[in-house]
Amino acid sequence: MNLSTTAASDRAAIEQVLQQYISGGIAGRADQMRPAFHEGATIFGYLGPDFIGGPIQGLFDWVDQNPPAAGLQCTIASIDIGATVATARLELDDWGGHRFTDMFTLLRVDGEWKIISKVFHLHG
Length: 124
Fold this sequence. Notes:
Blueprint: H1 3-27, H2 30-33, E1 37-47, E2 50-55, H3 57-65, E3 73-82, E4 85-95, E5 98-109, E6 112-122
Parallel strand pairs: 1-6
Antiparallel strand pairs: 1-2, 3-4, 4-5, 5-6
């Protein structure tokens, strides 16, 4: 396998992980997005003036407590891969009537890409 094949394979695997996250949001089911995240993953950002941060379970609780985001539109704006680490940026529109920018760090863990952290911006 050459370097460009490896990069394409990694990109496809990361896109699949991101799609698990997106699909879970659309369905309003944290159990669908949970496999995308490492068990020790974290989330940080602001909801209006309120800073939130901590274990990713906070995201899972929020997803399960809110209606599905059936109209969610998502664009993968970027993926940057550096061997066993990666970053990704998503632009999400109409998640519960809101627009978000999500940034993720990912790590290849036991051969699988996992989201390690999520930071987000809620657009006004």
